[in-house]
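so i finally got all the pieces together for this one. its two components total, 290 residues if u count the protein bits. some of the lines might not be protein, just check the labels. i wanna see the whole assembly predicted at once instead of chain by chain like last time, that was a mess tbh
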Amino acid sequence: MIQPSQVFDFTSFEQQGDLFCANWQAPETCPYFVGHFPDQPVLPAVGLLDGSIELIRRSGIPFQARKIALRKAKFMGMVRPGMKVRVTLKQKESSFEVEWCGLESLEPLASFSLRR
Amino acid sequence: MNLREQPVPTSDLGDYLPHRAPMVWVDEILEVNQSTNGPQGICRVVLGHDRAFHAADGSPRASTVVEWIAQAYGYVKAFHRRAGGFGVAGFGRAILVGISDCEADLSGIEEEQSLLVHVREMRNLHPAYVLEGSVTNEAGSRVYGKARLQVFGGAELPEAVPGKNAATRPIQAI
């Protein structure tokens, strides 16, 4: 069992208007890395999606665990053990837009558009 | 190719895909066929024990649908390649680069012992591929989720590219 609420121990929360941001450092022991992959651990897409949902929850918005409607997601980079990332949530009228980027490099890593 | 009488464990294809326990979330291959667009097939997921895709309440997280479809596609393509007599030489990893139109509602899933993951390749734009998949109960009467995925990398199967030396080219591994 992987519990995203424990895995994604976000820090440095910031809120500005409809933007909600937080930082996360992927732990070397992150359970998503176990078996994905043994020689070259990388956070799977499902981990990035779970992290996005977790950030929405941390912003105070209830999000059903059993339902999801994902309009679109793009993956531009990889999150590896130890990497520090910045995750930004923007609330729109009909969607949540979540973007992941490297904390220091600002390299875009992934983006999600989830229906509200 | 109908394998339902003797399903092929995905562990048999460990040489083709890099996933290892506990991140192997698809258990058996039940069907693999070649359509005009590319390989398609059906895999089974067994739910009855604690797995990495379970939430704290013991049921799978809705996000799992994406990984089930991605892995099922990888195993279907790997089986198809092996059935064609090709090994892992030149094997390379494919990367999931996009998801669209994904919906999942796992309400009531606790009543299921297992699920079926149906996948089919929609477009082969080597080295980019578009596939779609759905997750249903064993009878196929209840759809729990669906998604369209875009992957980059890997290689076409020999059947899909007459005249090319596919044996030396890599295959999908999502």
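Chain A has two helices and six strands.
The helical segments of chain A are 4-7, 45-58.
anyway lmk what u think
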